[in-house]
Design brief:
- The chain has one domain: TIM Barrel.
- The longest helix has 21 residues.
- The chain is globular, with a radius of gyration of 18 Å.
- It is an alpha/beta fold.
- The chain contains 10 helices and 9 strands.
Length: 246
């Protein structure tokens, strides 16, 4: 798999991609993969996720990273026609209609149906920011992309936004999911989201499912799919090839 060199503020980093399996609660089927950029410094040490956010604050850097991830996604989807892949689109780029047009043009160039790609936007947006981005979200949907809302449960739970745009998927943030077997308050909040906040018919993915005790409770509440270490850690491209057989 291709490895890119990325220069940020005079420092050089190596950038590659990893693939997070999103799995049914039973663990018997992989629903899709989330493609995420992974960064290493000049000494080949992995940059922790909490530090990469600082590296990606600039729009120009975000665009380079997203270009790389989208190139990887197109490469993978051309190799296996039954797969679907998601990726996170930064707030700086989601409002750029021209950039969305470039993404759909890449799909057309690679003969890939956009319905096989899910664009994830973060629930960290304020309500006013969300409203300003609605035209871009609707444009992405018109192009044929699936659109998901990530980080739900981390503090900006305006139910109104779920009525204004019909997301294909809602991803419950790991801060709410991790430890529900030990913290009844977390479980109660999660149950409320699943029962009355998230619109019926919307796919739900719970992130951060890292224990069998948490998984057992999610099975009870029929939460949909999961993303976490209970079944699999993130995969390298070679591991993805072996698992999917391409």
């Amino acid at each position: 798999m291709k490895i890119n060199t990325l220069e940020i503020k005079g420092r050089k980093f190596l950038m590659t991609a990893e693939f997070h399996p999103i799995i049914t609660l039973s663990g018997k089927k992989i629903l899709r993969y989330q493609a995420v950029a992974q960064f290493y410094n000049g000494e080949d040490f992995l940059i922790p996720a909490e530090q990469t956010g600082v590296l990606l604050e600039e729009t120009a850097v975000n665009r380079k990273v997203t270009d790389f991830i989208f190139e990887v996604i197109c490469h993978v989807l051309k190799m296996k026609e039954t797969m679907t892949v998601s990726f996170i689109l930064s707030p700086q780029l989601i409002n750029d209609i021209d950039y969305l047009t470039q993404l759909i043009e890449r799909c057309q160039h690679n003969d890939i149906a956009p319905q096989r790609i899910e664009i994830e936007v973060s629930n960290h947006l304020t309500y006013s920011q969300f409203i300003s981005k609605l035209p871009a979200l609707k444009q992405a949907r018109e192009y044929g992309f699936m659109v998901s809302l990530g980080k739900f449960g981390c503090g900006n739970e305006h139910a109104e936004r779920l009525q204004l745009f019909a997301f294909n998927t809602i991803k419950i943030d790991r801060s709410l999911v991790d430890g529900i077997a030990r913290h009844p308050a977390k479980l109660s909040t999660l149950h409320r989201f699943l029962d009355s906040v998230i619109p019926a018919g919307t796919d739900v993915i719970c992130e951060g499912v890292d224990s069998t005790a948490d998984l057992a409770l999610l099975n009870r509440y029929n939460a949909g799919g999961i993303q976490g270490y209970t079944f699999s850690r993130p995969l390298t491209f070679k591991q993805l090839q072996l698992l999917e057989g391409f």
